[in-house]
Automatic annotation (TrEMBL):
Occurrences of domain BMERB (ranges): 13-154
InterPro entries according to UniProt: bMERB_dom, F-actin_Monoox_Mical
Molecular function per GO: monooxygenase activity
Keywords: Coiled coil, Membrane, Monooxygenase, Oxidoreductase
Descriptive protein name: MICA1 monooxygenase
Location relative to the cell: Membrane
Source organism: Setophaga kirtlandii (Kirtland's warbler)
Residue runs in coiled coils: 23-50
A Pfam family it matches: bMERB_dom
Superkingdom field: Eukaryota
PANTHER family according to UniProt: [F-ACTIN]-MONOOXYGENASE MICAL1, CALPONIN HOMOLOGY DOMAIN-CONTAINING PROTEIN DDB_G0272472-RELATED
Amino acid sequence: FPTWKRTLARRTRESQMKRFCRAQAIQRRLEEIEVTFRELEQQGTKLEKLLRDENDSLADQHTQWTNQLLYLVQKKNNLMSEESDLMIAVQELKLEEQQCQLDEKLRSYMNKEDALKTPEDEKAEQEILKQLVDVVNKRNILIQLQEEKRLSEL
């Protein structure tokens, strides 16, 4: 087993582990966001009830509750934006994993000598190459989407 193949296999495993760790971190953060959403909803509901029920309360109190409600809405919007970014990251991870798998398949076909390749092998190699280009294009679209989102937030 040549050294370059062992190195390649090790790097593949390392990149898989990195993707796995990133996916776990993203999943944890999405769960945290979900919990925070629920808490914000509860707080917002309480504030709305206070604003509706307390018609005779002081103007300062009314203003304070309104400001708190607006703060909660802003916080929720920020979380929604972060959740959107994380969902894009999840898609990117899936495409990255798919690309690695296709790279590995393509490499196995390309390492085969041309004289030993069957027409089916050549057809499969072309199909994998086509799929690989599609995955790269999808990743490019995600990157463009992230960039447009970042620019619009500025």
